[in-house]
Amino acid sequence: MAKRYYWLKLKADWFSDKRIKKLRSIAGGDTHTIIYLKMMLLSLKDEGKLYFEGVEDNFASEIALALDEDAENVKLTLAFLQRHGLIEIGDDDEYQLTEVPTIIGSETASAMRVREHRERKKENRLLQCNTTETGCNNLKQICSVEREKEIERDKELEGEGEKEKEIPTPAAYGKFNNVFLSDAELDSLKAELPDKWEYYIDRLSVHIASSGKQYRNNAATIYKWSQEDAGKTTPKKGMPDYSYSEEDSL
Questions:
Q1: More confident call, 152 vs 99
Q2: In this structure, what DSSP letter does residue 181 have?
Q3: Which of 32, 49, 77, 114 lies 20 to 30 Å (CA to CA) from residue 158?
């Protein structure tokens, strides 16, 4: 089962709720408020439910053990919560924190990776635009194409993440950060083209940025170019050949 993260989505005026203000106003109120928050966090994975398992003599002592809090403080907190409808006792020693089901936030590990990937890509584009106005204009020409590729790649990551398959997110390389390669593809290029892998990555990066062309597989394009170059006269250092074949582009 895919790993999932949980959090509380407290409203901005949560501490202005009259019940919370009342809880904080009693003796030791801040301690009781912290105990209430820790109880809510403890119940997240069960949608606000806590259970008495009989490890201690009573529920208050058992929760105090789980939270590393004083049992008497927990007992007073529970009494306050029950009196104000913030906790309800059900059957089979089940305790329901009534507010929690409406303020739970959750996200799969795969969705988190996708969101972080989008944020990194957005930051990279902004950085490039801030570097040079010309570079920004070039990026705008291919922005829509790259965005569509990102969406498709994100969907694949989400779908396979639900099947518990860890798929590494391709990273951006090259002068314009538009050559996407996985770690495995980059390692393979380094091994097979030890003296030229950086040259070919930059060559492809400049070509994509200047022409607006996109390729189905950047690593495969680099291998193809290297094989074609092997049959030609080696280009002079500092004078790269940015020619391409129409069949290479989408």
A1: 99
A2: E
A3: 49
Tens-digit pLDDT profile for residues 170-190? 888 888 888 888 888 889 999
Residue found under tokens 């790259």: 146
Residue 5 is given by DSSP the state: E
Q: Which residue blocks in 132-217 are alpha helix, DSSP H?
A: 133-161, 183-192, 197-211
Q: Is the pTM of this model over 0.90?
A: no
Output the DSSP codes for 82-150: HHTTSEEE-STTEEEETTGGGSEEEEEHHHHHHHHHHHHHHHHHHHHHHH-HHHHHHHHHHHHHHHHHH
Bridge partners for 88 per DSSP = 96
The sheet with strand 49-51 has its strands ordered as: 49-51, 94-97, 87-89
- Is residue 9 within 8 Å of residue 107, measured between CB atoms? no
Say how many Å lie between the first and final Cα of the chain, rounded.
Answer: 37
Q: Output the six-digit token pair for 166.
A: 């860890």
Phi first, then psi: give them for residue 173, nearest 5 degrees.
-130, 175
Q: How many CB atoms lie within 10 A of CB 218?
A: 24
Token pair for 154: 């994100």
pLDDT value for 165: 47
